Amino acid sequence: MSLKHLGPGSVMPPLQKGKLRLYSMVFCPYAQRARLVLAAKNIPFEVVNIKLKVKPEWYLKVNPLGQVPCLHFDDGRTLPESLLVSEYLDDTYPENKLIPTDPYKKAIQRLLIDSVTKVTGPFYKFLFGDSAAGPDILNGLDYYEQKLDNDYFGGDKPTFVDYMIWPWFERLEYLKQYKGLDLNENRHQKLFSYFERMKKVPAVKATIIPAATFDKFFKSYASEEPDYDCGIVQ
Amino acid sequence: MSLKHLGPGSVMPPLQKGKLRLYSMVFCPYAQRARLVLAAKNIPFEVVNIKLKVKPEWYLKVNPLGQVPCLHFDDGRTLPESLLVSEYLDDTYPENKLIPTDPYKKAIQRLLIDSVTKVTGPFYKFLFGDSAAGPDILNGLDYYEQKLDNDYFGGDKPTFVDYMIWPWFERLEYLKQYKGLDLNENRHQKLFSYFERMKKVPAVKATIIPAATFDKFFKSYASEEPDYDCGIVQ
């Protein structure tokens, strides 16, 4: 099956018995959360990529929210929302449990995950041209710099929290190289080492996109139909 | 120990070994989520009420977010945020499990819980004088009217989702009687029966506040120091 992003006029690829389907979009950080969990847990799945700006008519019937990620089960049930999808996958597939079983540790991880809005809020403003939001991104990173007291946010190996916040951290390199974000190692020393560690994690390697490809995509984003495939999916 | 709300100049009541403490405020719907779960699960706890508009100096050290609810354990650890507190309590105390063990049912409940912003968004606008937000509250209720397909949102008995959305439903009566919200049984027939059922649930009976008392409290809210005790806590 082609991984090319589907738009208006397309037909929903038929569901297949026993196959878990993920609706995704290659550059979407929320969908990447789900793809990171799927990769980290070695869960077999098929992906159907969606042109979010020019959606297939059938997709709004499958997921009235119109967003990705969304799971589609072979019995027709669906599940939207990145955190719900990711938690569902971790609950359902026991291999490599990512969410702590200790209720307090789980809650503290969730607090760290929900705090990513400190970064994502100014992130989108800056991405779409409001350079005054740059300092707010750095302030948001200060919070994580202060919270990082081990190799990863949940301990000495990557767990749920790392995968839930990584997609925006990954895109900082693009903001720095192509959009002039004043990100530097002196201010966020622990985070910079953490970023390097994360880039070697197999699930991250399986989903990471180079800064130059983000630049190519976001340059096309203002057009009526952005270049969702960007030469990286066929 | 007095339940009167504490403000500036107060001293933090000392933690007691083996006692779980909840910081709360009698009229706060988020804190009520935690109190509903505590009541539904018969969890022993002590409550310390906080004047949210004029906070005790010590409270910001305990919970830098400055909000309620917040749990305080006898070893000094804390946990803020109503959904995290409520989930933690359900995870930790096995009696009367409120969150579904089935991962898909759990995710669908969470989707219903997160959708309460459809009601809470316009709720606060309307409460603080923007009468144009009234129709948006009713639209938000349409969503729940449509989703209710059993005696309760999670099946034939109250579960997590019911307790997480109830606090705003409870306050609709006050908005109707004292603020002119055009709530009527013809439009929300299933919800009206549901409200009556919920009012008979023991945990709801343990925390419910009459519309007239809400009115007394919110009338005092514009002042520098609202009447948090309102004659109902001593």
Automatic annotation (TrEMBL), chains A, B:
Signal sequence extent: none
One GO cellular component assignment for this chain's record is: cytoplasm
- The Enzyme Commission number assigned here is 1.20.4.2, 1.8.5.1, 2.5.1.18
Concerning Pfam families, the annotation shows:
GST_C_2 (PF13410), GST_N_3 (PF13417)
Record keywords: tRNA-binding included? no
Annotated GST C-terminal domain ranges read 102-222
Q: Which GO BP annotation is one of this protein's? A: glutathione metabolic process
All copies of the GST N-terminal domain together span 18-97
- Is-annotated flag, keyword Oxidoreductase? yes
Read off the InterPro entries from this record: Glutathione-S-Trfase_C-like, Glutathione-S-Trfase_C_sf, Glutathione_S-Trfase, Glutathione_S-Trfase_N, GST_omega, GST_Omega/HSP26, Thioredoxin-like_sf
Catalytic activities: L-dehydroascorbate + 2 glutathione = glutathione disulfide + L-ascorbate; RX + glutathione = an S-substituted glutathione + a halide anion + H(+); methylarsonate + 2 glutathione + H(+) = methylarsonous acid + glutathione disulfide + H2O
Function in brief = Exhibits glutathione-dependent thiol transferase activity. Has high dehydroascorbate reductase activity and may contribute to the recycling of ascorbic acid. Participates in the biotransformation of inorganic arsenic and reduces monomethylarsonic acid (MMA).
The Swiss-Prot or TrEMBL record describes its family as follows:
Belongs to the GST superfamily. Omega family.
Instruction: Give the matching PANTHER family.
Output: GLUTATHIONE S-TRANSFERASE OMEGA, PTHR43968
Name of the featured protein: Glutathione S-transferase omega
- What species was this sequence derived from? Brachionus calyciflorus
- Source lineage: Eukaryota, Metazoa, Spiralia, Gnathifera, Rotifera
